[in-house]
Design goal:
Layout lengths: L1 H4 L8 H34 L11 H12 L5 H35 L3 H16 L7 H31 L2 H11 L6 H27 L3 H27 L10 H5 L1 H9 L1
Helix pairs in contact: 4-5, 6-8, 6-9
């Protein structure tokens, strides 16, 4: 979100953009959830078993459960092709968004060209992904994905919202947002960020930690190697990169120099 928002023009309607992003994402997730549970319920009814007996999460849901349901449709070749085409597009677009974070960070700090960064990061990502091609690869991928979502992203969001609301002047941010947006944010928005959101995120992190503490044996060992070690490695690498002196040591708004509309206006003038 930070990477993509840096490309917005200065006077973008931030409230409208934020609501659209949140509601479209959550709305699509809700529709997908309705679809998934409908499929699982129908499959459980046809097989006369409990829903838990036909549930397969993660990769198994996309490549086993849903394809099995598609085979029961009138034209499985058509719906199957559309489903996996959508899955491919989703994967490619997700990969692009993930790579953009690396590209912007290295471009802003070290002044590297985008092609150079891609040429380094893509082969590196390919080599690391080989770890997920073994027999235990699916399980490793699930552990890494769980830790990144349950700990990495949630903890980063918690840190951001606490720093933004308790250590910076959120009133100034609110005035700026309201000045350039059609819909205004008020005290409910401010109190939600200060109190409600941190409480919800803390509960989510606490629940995940309690669940991890209950593990033992081989499951605990795998989580230590591919879970906690990954989180620790990300933190260490982040501090190392932060300590390295880069070419650009100022905050760079990409929209000022790279926004095509802005550049076109300058050329016209």
């Amino acid at each position: 979100m930070i990477s993509y928002s840096s490309y917005l023009p200065k006077k973008s309607d931030l409230v409208n953009n934020g609501f659209m992003t949140g509601f479209l994402n959550c709305g699509f997730s809700m529709l997908s959830g309705i679809m998934i549970f409908s499929i699982l319920g129908n499959m459980a009814t046809l097989k006369d078993v409990d829903v838990s007996d036909v549930v397969s999460d993660g990769v198994g849901l996309a490549f086993m459960t849903i394809p099995e349901a598609i085979n029961q449709l009138p034209a499985p070749w058509l719906f199957g092709s559309l489903f996996f085409l959508s899955l491919t597009i989703a994967g490619i677009s997700s990969a692009i968004s993930i790579m953009e974070v690396f590209i912007i960070s290295f471009h802003d700090k070290f002044g590297w060209e985008r092609k150079k960064i891609v040429a380094i990061m893509v082969p590196l990502g390919f080599v690391i992904s080989i770890l997920y091609t073994s027999r235990a690869g699916i399980h490793r991928l699930g552990v890494v994905d769980t830790f990144i979502n349950n700990f990495g992203i949630i903890f980063a969001a918690l840190a951001e919202v606490i720093l933004l609301t308790w250590f910076f002047k959120i009133d100034i941010i609110k005035k700026h947002v309201n000045l350039i947006s059609d819909f205004k944010v008020g005290r409910i928005w401010e109190y939600s960020l200060k109190i409600l959101v941190p409480i919800i995120l803390l509960i989510a992190i606490s629940a995940a930690i309690v669940e991890e503490m209950a593990l033992s044996g081989k499951a605990l060992q795998i989580n230590l190697v591919f879970g906690w070690a990954v989180i620790a490695g990300i933190l260490i690498i982040s501090f190392i990169l932060q300590a390295i002196k880069g070419k650009n040591q100022h905050i760079h708004l990409h929209s000022e120099s790279e926004d095509p509309v802005t550049e076109g206006e300058k050329n016209d003038n």
